[in-house]
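Entry 14. Ran structure prediction on the chain below.
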Amino acid sequence: MFAPTKTYRRWHRKVNKNQRRFALVSSLAASASTALVMARGHRVDNIPEVPLVIANETITEIAKTSSAVKLLKAIRAYEDVEKVKESKKLRRGKGKMRNRRYTQRRGPLIVYDQKSPLVRAFRNLPGVDLCCVTRLNLLQLAPGGHLGRFVIWTRGAFEKLNALYGSIRKPSALKADYRLPRSMVTNSDLGRLINSQEIQSVVRPKKKQRKHIVHKKNPLRNLGFMIKLNPYAKTMRRQELLRQALAVKKRDARHKRIAAKQPPKTKKKKEGKNVHKVRMNAHKKKFVKSLYTNN
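Output, C-alpha cells:
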C-alpha cells in the first residue's frame, strides 16, 4: 500500500494446518544437516556435532549472561554470536525512521522444554533467539524463508520431539492423527540409482550420432559467405577498393595544386571601436564636396 497502514489491513494469511506442520518439520530436518546450516552462513566449523544437544543440568541452571557466554565458548558456538556483532549495520532508505534503524544477521536458536532462568541469561546476547519446543515458530527456524538455522537443543526438548511429531510408522502422541510426511525416495544417492544395472538395462542406448548445426551467416557482412554465393563478389570488392584508392590519390593531388596557386594568407588588422563613425564622416564630406562641384 502506498498510504499509511490501517488497522483494517489484511495483516495475516490463513494457511492449512497440515501445510504449516509440513514446513515446520522440514525446517527442523534441515537444521540437522551440517551442509545446509553452513550454507545459511552460520559458523559451525568447530562445534562437536549437528544437531547440538546439551544436558538439562548444564544449561537450565544458567541465570547470568556472563555464564551463558562461557557456555557458548565451551561448546565453541560463540563464534556465531561474534559474527552477528560484526554484521550490525545502518539500514539504507527510509526504514531508519521507522523503528528499524539497524540490520544484523541471525545467530543460534536455543530450544528448551520448560521455562527456566536460561531465558533471562541468553536473551541479551545479539542474534540469539529462544523458543519453547511446544511453540516452535517457522519464522525462527527458517528466517527469511532460508532453511538451516543453527539450533541448540536442551536434552528435554530434543526428547520431546518424538511425542510432538511422531515418526513415519508411529503417529504423534500430542497431535491428533498426525504422522510425519514420508519421503518418496528412500535412497538419496541419485548417481548410484541411475547407474544401477536395473535402470541401465531398461534405458535406451546413448545416441552416438551428433547433429551438425549450421549457423546461417549474413552475406552482406561476411565476405567469405558472399563469395560462396557469388564468386564474382571477390573481383567486385577488389575493384571497389582500387577505385577508392585512386579517388584518394586524385583528391590529394588536387589539394596540392590549389595550395600551390594560392598566395599565403595575411592577417587583417583589427579595426578600432569608432570605425563606423569615421566612415560616416567620410561619406558626409564626399556628399558636401559633390554639392559644391556641381554648382
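The radius of gyration is 44 Å. Will compare against last week's run tomorrow.
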